[in-house]
Fold this protein.
Amino acid sequence: ISVESADDSGEILEEDNEITVEPVDVMNDAYFVSIGFKISGLKINDQHQICGFKQFRKTLIENPSLKPGGSYGNFKLLEDGNIVFSVNLCINPVLNKTDVKFYDQTLHLGFSNLTGFNPNGGDVLASGNWEFDFSLAPPQEEMHLESEVQLEGMGYKVVSMDITPMSLYIRLERDGNPDWYPNVSVVNLSDGRETYITGGGFGADGIIGGNAYILGRFEYPIDVDQLEIINFSQEYKDDGAPHGYNRRYASLSLIDEKE
């Protein structure tokens, strides 16, 4: 991934000093982009002074009508006085009704006027426009698995999985009369760790004729060869349970699927 161009000058209004906004950590695969940014030169004492940018722009140059989901957040003040935050975006092929993937695209990100609590008055901490173009490449590590594994009691079977260090994309086929769609919230790695799944989505997949899909991002990058167990859950109607619903669970071991 390369940053093609950047305009990263701005001012702290009360200090009239130049600040910079620069990307420090960039990662993408077909469906997710995660970019860490650093703000230098902004003199604040508490990260909670920051509210956000008045404007945030995200555009795929080659496909401007496609609007990736997600935004920026998690401002954190470091000991050296710099501030970091992250941008996390997603293309959901089902909800976006597209086969466009992030790689081989140019992603434009733009930020305008950092806002928050300004002791000198007003809500603008730093005025300026910061524009970045990122050339996104295919992931260096990717695994595709075909499967015919039944998810016991859930009314679905797994037919394929795409796994990268960032994310998991599972396609399912209906095999019964399910109450609802399965989902994945956590996976187990061979070194004993587990990672939660966030973002993406799950539900009916109109692209493959009314079956189902699960798309999610790992909470931290993984080695795809260490992904060992995928844990599924599914909500179902249960009149005897609180609120009338309960959950069933199933696990899929990838040890046999990888052979």
Remarks:
- Residues 1-17 have pLDDT under 50 and may be disordered.
